[in-house]
Design a protein that fits this description.
Pfam families: AllH (PF11392)
Number of strands: 8
InterPro entries: AllH-like
Mean pLDDT: 89
Distance between the termini: 26 Å
Largest sheet: 8 strands, mixed, barrel
Protein name: DUF2877 domain-containing protein
Order of helices and strands: EHEEEEEEEHHHHHHHHH
Number of helices: 10
Shape: globular
Radius of gyration: 19 Å
Strand content: 15-25%
Helix content: 25-40%
């Protein structure tokens, strides 16, 4: 995926009247959030804030949707609005307004305004040759840094996808949701990797898995950021490192080694857990109808 071009000018930015101290900066938004950012203004709330990311849940009437403000060095999430530098000083609970080409966070004396002047395209992952991808991951060894409980739970997910039992699938999903520490627990990353692969290669399995994840109520079982990213994974959307890895797996001349190293470098365990979820889904698809 080509890197988005972040605008450097501020001609389109309209500062909040009467407040020169508010952070005002341009942004380049993912096409996955075009309906949110380009539509009518909707209310939201900051649910997480780190040095490189500010996550907002937006209520659009059919359940909350995640949007993230990130600096240029952060991992490129499929729902990101990329700014030239990270937005600072925000915290969970800050109110937000999203729409009409802007993201406004905080009040008139404390917050930020990001005006979207450009867009970058995010597409669902594609696996050209599923059989080849499955063959290449068949003997894969899990990264030592992954917790044994996560690896075991991932194995149960693969068996549940393979056998086609919805009750077993619900139990497997429940065992992974929220499993592990951090903003995106490893169990959720396993689910995200499996969802992306299933969406690309096994529509029936993808529908079953997405329904099981939704029925488990991720917003009540894990972090708001992780729950929001699972929503995008169900549409086949993921970080570019996973998308590139899956493309390489399914291509005759794909450089799998390079793509795999880049994926494993994502986060502390996120890349390894995404890879694990992709592998168990690919293995399960060997015994199910696409």
């Amino acid at each position: 995926m080509p890197a988005p071009t972040v605008p450097t000018g501020v001609r389109a930015i309209r500062p909040w009247p009467g407040d020169a101290s508010r952070q005002v900066l341009p942004g380049a938004a993912s096409t996955a959030v075009a309906a949110l950012v380009g539509g009518p203004r909707l209310t939201g709330e900051v649910v997480a804030a780190t040095r490189t990311l500010t996550a907002v849940l937006v209520d659009h009437g059919a359940g909350p949707v995640l949007l993230c403000l990130t600096g240029p060095a952060a991992v490129r999430l499929p729902c990101a609005v990329v700014t030239p530098w990270p937005v600072s000083g925000l915290r969970p609970g800050h109110p937000a307004l999203v729409g009409e080409g802007e993201v406004r966070i905080g009040d008139e004396s404390d917050g930020a305004v990001v005006t979207v002047g450009r867009w970058w395209r995010t597409r669902p992952a594609v696996i050209g040759d599923v059989a080849l991808a499955r063959q290449r991951t068949a003997g894969q060894v899990d990264r030592p840094g992954l917790d044994g409980g996560v690896v075991a739970a991932a194995g149960r997910l693969g068996l549940a996808l393979l056998c086609g039992d919805d009750d077993e699938l619900a139990d497997a999903v429940g065992g992974l949701l929220g499993l592990g520490p951090g903003l995106t627990p490893a169990g959720d990353d396993v689910l995200a990797g499996a969802l992306v692969v299933a969406t690309a290669a096994g529509p029936r399995a993808a529908k079953r898995l997405a329904a099981a994840v939704e029925a488990a109520g991720p917003l009540h079982r894990t972090t708001a950021v992780s729950a929001g990213l699972l929503h995008y994974a169900a549409r086949g959307l993921a970080v570019p490192q996973l998308t590139a890895y899956l493309a390489a797996l399914g291509a005759d001349r794909g450089d799998v080694g390079v793509a795999e190293r880049r994926l494993l470098a994502v986060g502390h365990t996120s890349g390894a857990a995404l890879r694990l979820g992709a592998r168990v889904a690919l293995a399960a698809l060997a015994g199910t109808a696409r």
